[in-house]
Amino acid sequence: MNYTESLAxxxxxxxxxxxxxxxxxxxxxxELGNPEQKIKTVHVxxxxxxxxxxxMITSILLAANLKVGKFTSPHLVKYNxxxxxxxxxxxxxxxxxxxxxxxxxxxxxxxxxxxxxPTQFEILTAAxxxxxxxxxxxxxxxxxxxxxxxxxxNVITPVVSVxxxxxxxxxxxxxxxxxxxxxxxxxxxxxxVPLVTAAEGNEALGPIVSLAMFKEAPVYLYGKAFHGTEVxxxxxxxxxxxHAGDFYHSDYEIKLPGEHxx
Length: 262
Hints:
Blueprint: H1 3-12, H2 23-31, E1 41-45, H3 50-63, E2 68-71, E3 83-85, E4 88-89, H4 92-112, H5 120-134, E5 139-143, E6 160-163, H6 171-174, H7 178-186, E7 195-197, H8 202-214, E8 219-221, E9 226-234, E10 237-244, E11 248-254
Helix pairs in contact: 1-4, 2-4, 2-5, 4-5, 7-8
């Protein structure tokens, strides 16, 4: 497929809507040789701020002279925005190549009866993993689409998991209480993989910490393991001191206003 044909294919998948569950993405990625298992990843979920945190983590890794992929959703103008390499959106040619390869795999698993037709988001997720693997990234920063536990990005075992916070969102699919939503977000926690979170309150933190303990995943909680204090702030950005336990204190600047950014 060329770029126009790949867009038409993705648009045609819109009729399948959102379907939570892992059987389609797992079958699809197996058909592709499990590229997601061959790259280092960071996994980010949360009710608010996951897009900003994904971008900030990406910028930090780029500043360390690493080759970095970023997968986010939704897009504003073009699908290409969702798959980013070293700060640049995937080219039309590479996008078409990745979507074509994934379509071939999707058609194959459907024909074999492995699973039903993968959704649009699952096709895009698989295309991102394939592209990042082929590009031999040092890290890929992966933003959850919805929730966590049953999200199609939750096939990875990252080097670190991030839950920004927990509030009421997507209650039709993730649950109608903070506790149930927190359980969905906590679904990205993996065995012995460190978790960083700024979630607050017993309803939100309870399920997260409980599952982390069960999976022996170290928890780094904002306000305890680390915190930031404002040095100066304006609409042009702000400076703050990062405190990480008794061992690390350093000043940083960000170009975004708002105490929540710190």
